[in-house]
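Moderator note: this is an archived Q&A kept for reference. The question asked for a predicted structure of one protein chain; the sequence and the answer are reproduced below.
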Amino acid sequence: MLAVVGTSSTTPVDLTARLKRVRTVADVESALHGVHGSFHVAASVDGHMYVRGSAFGARRLYRATVDGVTVCADRARTLAHLTGADLDPARVAARLAAPCLPYPLADVAMWTGVEIVDPGHALRVAPDGRACTIAWWRPPPAHLPMADAAGLLREALRAAVALRVRPGRVLAADLSGGLDSTSLCFLAAEAGAHLVTSTQHWNRPGNQDHHYARFAADCLPRVEPLVFTSTDLPACFAGLDDRREPLEEPSGLLRDRARHCHTADALRARGAELRLSGHGGDHAVVPPDAYLHTLWRRRPLTALRVTNGFRARGRWSLSATRRMLLGTGSYPAWLTGASSHLREGTGTSPGPAPWGPRPALPPWASDRAVDLVAAVLGRATEHTEPLDPDPGRHAWLHQMREAGRGAALLHEASTSHELPTDSPFCDDAVLTACLTARPHEAGHPWAYKPLLAAAMHGLVPEHILHRTTKDHCGPDWYLGLRTHRGRLSDIADTSHLAAAGLADRELLRRALISPGLNIGSAPELEHTLGVEAWLRDLAAHPDPAHLVPRHHSHEEPPVDTAAH
């Protein structure tokens, strides 16, 4: 038996033909060669089980042992319910860190006894119950010139978007005015989609997103553009008291959750059944500047030029740049260093970060929280190897896996609102295509997203491809905090984090009701609110509402499923 579950290019007829090549579970991946999309794979051959998610975590897989039997699911909470597992306080505390958690802390379930099958790996279970994980995906070499890598990205992204286009179906898409979402809209139009787009016109003076979004909409065929001003939408952080079925883990979606639901209602009213998001574009097409470490050793003259460009743009000091470039060290040593600097802010070390950004806990994190996270990082040094021996390559892979994790949460949250959101940039084929590019050509300081711009040349208007600015919603963010100041104070007073000994209640209150004091950064506040809301959702819904994936009321399933 062989099943492909999710959005994929295969069909029951095609999968039946592929199944004829399978003699053992070792043949499954070769039989599926060329199938693209975002999906799970499950197979059973002569009593041997083989199951996996996607390479970057957009489709996740968890495992646990129930009465001596290995059980796997795409929801950690399902396994926690079956095993009676408790939340792990260290893993909860770690979710307070900003800007992100390092590998492998980012890829853990929130419950004890529930483990994630590492993205890019498959779970194999023998007839006698012995289970092991094996790698089914390897990153490609990063050796292609820009033009060749851009060609691969163009075709991969074109195929990913085309998978979501169906005759007679209205397709919703975010059209922010940025290059990521705009590229998806033009690819969807090329595939013949009837588009209805959502553009948010933020309240920031000088906002340019709206101009670029309007320009793009005027160039798109068969499009119905919907524009929402800040006054049309709920304030940021609206719905703090709304308790929902918990996601698999805390997320940063709380800030815009009410706005996303508002726009989803409008899109559904126009007949949309699926929504495309540009989420993951930044993570996919722009490699972290950690690649400078290796570039200095391989191409020092190029590295000098690129480093000077980054220094000028990011205001890196010469001493900090030299220290960061010369002090790479091993990954376990980097994790050890991170464990001893959790109290330092996220912006205290400008420069090319070796192995990626260092995690920092917010000022309101308790001493217990710091100790728990430091201990977890310390234990990770004993058995963790980097995702790649090259620091820059490791950082890019981890960045992509963070995008995949976010895509999974976005899809889960939006599905509950009956308008699933897909993130084509997080499809395995798209991310793999990006990895073929030379990092110093895909992420240099003199152009904005040069890899994606080259991939979309001739399809997206040049006016948009040559954009060099990026807007933000800072005024809306602060207005949302001011609007909900009273409720935020109540949240601090009744904080589940504080009750668990993971946060200082008074410092948390000051940060929430007076964000202008800069007690913590915006990501730190959002992460904390995300964890707090998630704990409250768990308390309100102690048991999963069901143990099977959700289904929709319309005849056609939300994703393609092929099985034999």
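Archived answer notes: Confidence is low (pLDDT under 50) at residues 548-561.
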